[in-house]
Amino acid sequence: MTGEVQLTTFGVLGPVTAWDGAGVAIGLKGPRHRAVLARLIVARRRVVPVAHLVTDLWEDPPPDAVGALRTFVAALRRALEPQRPPRSPARLLVTEGPGYALRAEPDAVDAWRFERSVAAPGPPEDVLPRVEEALGWWRGPAYADFADEPWARAERSRLTELRLHAVERLAEARVALGAAGEAVPDLDAHVAEHPWREEGWRLLALALYRTGRQGDALAVLRRARELLVEQLGVDPGPGLRRLEADILHHAPHLDAGRQGPADTVWARASAAYDRSVPSGARARLESTVGLMRDLAVTGGGGLRAAREHRVAAVAAAEELGDVELTARVIGAYDVPAIWTRLDDPGQAGHVIAAAERTLAALPPGPAATLPPALAVAIPPGTARDALRARLLATIALESRGTNAARGPAAAREAELLARRLDDPGLLAFALNGVFMQTFHRTGLAPRRDAIGAELIALSARHGLTTYEVLGHLIRLQARGALADFAGADAHASAADRLAARHELPLVGVFTQWYWALRLDATGQAPPREVEAAYRAAAARLDGAGMPGLEDGLLPLALLCLRVRHALPAPADESTGFGPYEPWTRPLVLLGHGHRREAAAKLRDVPDPPRDLLQEAMWCLVARAAVAVGDRETMARARVALAPAAAELAGAGSGLLTLGPVSEHLDLLG
Question: What pLDDT is attached to residue 294?
Answer without folding.
Answer: 81
